[in-house]
Amino acid sequence: MTSHAIYPALDPERPATLSPVILTQLLRERMGFEGLIITDDLEMGAIAKHWGIAEGAAAAFKAGADILLICEDQKRVLEGIELLRQRLLQGELSSQRLDQSNERIMKVRSDLMDRKEWLLKGNIKEYFNL
After folding, report:
1. What's the domain count of the chain?
2. pLDDT digits (tens, 9 = 90+) for 51-88
């Protein structure tokens, strides 16, 4: 999960959630992270006040986030989806980038579904080491 904090030594202008330097160059390319990148809630003040929720969602996606959390106001979810759609249609965001996120999400989903039978047998506490 990304942080909305600014790390000046890495990217002095953008919080980590919106930073391609941090999410793509550092996390994906340099560190080799292949898992899901999930934003913290984009309705939080650090994003909402300075960029706006829909703009924050588009910037986070462009930076490399796979799952964009907008947790409270479902109207904002629709606004974010519409802005992402517009940016994809206008070529500001690439369909390749969308495919990359979709592949990562589907992989995690598949991995979890492979465990479904084991989890459904009542082994939740064991799974989470409780």
Report:
1. 1
2. 999 999 999 999 999 999 999 999 999 999 999 999 99
123: its two tokens = 């082994």
The residue with tokens 């965001």 is 93
Residue type, 85: R
Q: Is residue 81 part of a domain?
A: yes
Tell me if 116 is assigned to some domain: no
Instruction: Answer whether 42's CB lies under 8 Å from 57's CB.
Output: yes
Q: Which residues face 6 on adjacent strands?
A: 15
Return the SS3 of 68: coil
Q: Give pTM, 2 decimals.
A: 0.87
Q: What is the residue range of 52's domain?
A: 16-94
Q: How far apart are CA 34 and CA 41, in angstroms?
A: 22
